[in-house]
């Protein structure tokens, strides 16, 4: 793998369509050392350039609703598999379908921006639907990285898609001892602030 940085710190003038409600937004220009948020067609072109230069590309995916240390360990391990890491996140509609009412807590555009700021992440894209299989077939990363909770690569739902184009599936990261649902449950279990305490804080602010 090459030691040359993959991240491109030039601003993008691409206006992306939000897959959730059809509105458009322009991803913020990347800061030095920060990854890029790109729609799939632009990302495919960028990855083609990397592959032409002999770079290896890894792909990770998930909801990433409320980032926690398990996410970071997963992404660090995925980035170690290649020269560049793509993170694909479920759009808001698919998270709501898979996780239920009230999710996601953080909208897709903000989740993407947060992930792009993490050191191991080079590119972020948003996809619709429950499975990233169509996106994997389009981008064809060298390695699809999933969590260790799957047990074996063959149990990953997208294994056949990745194998069909000649890619690899790797299980990376630490044991899945952290999850967003537990964080939400812990937050909801916190005692409500008493009115007197809240009033006192407002008076002193």
Written description of the protein model:
It is built from eight helices and eight strands. It has a six-stranded parallel β-sheet with strand order 3-6-5-4-7-8. The protein has a single domain, classed as Rossmann fold. Mean pLDDT is 82; it is low at 9-21 and 196-205. It is of the alpha/beta class and 205 residues long.
What are the main properties of this structure?
disordered C terminus, 6-stranded parallel β-sheet, 205 residues, 8 helices, two-stranded antiparallel sheet, Rossmann fold, alpha/beta, globular
Give a brief rundown of this model.
With 205 residues, the protein is of the alpha/beta class. It is built from eight helices and eight strands.
Number of discrete domains? 1
Number of helical runs?
8
Please provide the ordered H/E string of secondary-structure elements.
EEEHEHEHHEHEHEHH
Classification by helices and strands = alpha/beta
Strand percentage, roughly? 15-25%
**What is the count of β-strands?**
8
What is the approximate shape?
globular
Which architecture per CATH? 3-Layer(aba) Sandwich
CATH top level? Answer: Alpha Beta
Low-confidence stretches: 9-21, 196-205
List the helices and strands and how they pair.
Blueprint: E1 16-17, E2 24-25, E3 36-37, H1 40-52, E4 57-62, H2 69-79, E5 84-90, H3 92-99, H4 108-116, E6 123-127, H5 133-139, E7 143-147, H6 159-164, E8 168-172, H7 180-189, H8 195-204
Parallel strand pairs: 3-6, 4-5, 4-7, 5-6, 7-8
Antiparallel strand pairs: 1-2
């Amino acid at each position: 793998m090459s030691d040359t940085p993959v991240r491109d710190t030039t601003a993008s003038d691409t206006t992306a369509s939000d897959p959730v409600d059809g509105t458009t937004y322009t991803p913020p220009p990347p800061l030095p050392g920060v990854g890029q948020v790109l729609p799939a067609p632009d990302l495919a072109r960028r990855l083609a350039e990397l592959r032409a230069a002999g770079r290896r590309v890894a792909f990770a995916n998930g909801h990433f609703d409320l980032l926690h240390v398990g996410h970071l360990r997963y992404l660090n391990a995925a980035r170690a598999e290649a020269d560049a890491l793509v993170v694909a996140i479920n759009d808001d509609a698919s998270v709501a379908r898979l996780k239920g009412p009230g999710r996601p807590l953080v909208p897709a555009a903000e989740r993407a921006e947060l992930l792009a700021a993490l050191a191991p992440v080079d590119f972020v894209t948003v996809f619709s639907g429950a499975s990233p299989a169509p996106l994997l077939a389009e981008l064809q990363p060298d390695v699809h990285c999933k969590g260790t909770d799957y047990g074996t690569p063959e149990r990953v739902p997208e294994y056949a898609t990745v194998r069909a184009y000649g890619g690899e599936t790797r299980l990376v990261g630490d044991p899945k001892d952290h999850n967003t649902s537990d964080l939400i449950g812990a937050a909801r279990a916190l005692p409500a602030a008493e009115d007197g305490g809240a009033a006192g804080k407002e008076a002193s602010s």
